[in-house]
Q: What sequence folds into this?
């Protein structure tokens, strides 16, 4: 079953659109850390997400950048230095992420 689109190909379901942008195992966690911790280097993000592979993290960051939620700044140094930060558009997701954090804290079972 596919979600209907309008005459411009735009998804009619806004929740599906949102999940398309921030869905996936790591995107919301990446956004959360950038929103809370501020600008982070690639390796700092990788340390915060111990279960993520290099390939997946790189892909998720690239998609977040393409969607205008994260900005990437590369410094021409040796070794190369790359920093990621949330854009103004990405920051508009913080209220949603804060509610997700609160809900998870309230309902997380002890594992």
A:
């Amino acid at each position: 079953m596919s979600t209907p689109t309008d005459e411009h190909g735009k998804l009619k379901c806004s929740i599906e659109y949102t999940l398309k942008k921030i869905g996936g195992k790591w995107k919301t966690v990446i956004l959360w850390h950038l929103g809370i911790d501020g600008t982070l280097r690639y390796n700092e993000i990788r340390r915060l997400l111990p279960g993520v592979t290099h390939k997946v993290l790189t892909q998720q960051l690239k998609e977040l950048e393409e969607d205008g939620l994260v900005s990437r700044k590369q410094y021409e140094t040796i070794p190369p230095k790359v920093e990621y930060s949330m854009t103004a558009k990405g920051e508009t997701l913080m209220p949603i992420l804060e509610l997700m954090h609160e809900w998870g804290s309230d309902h997380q079972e002890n594992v």
The chain has a mean pLDDT of 89. The radius of gyration is 16 Å.
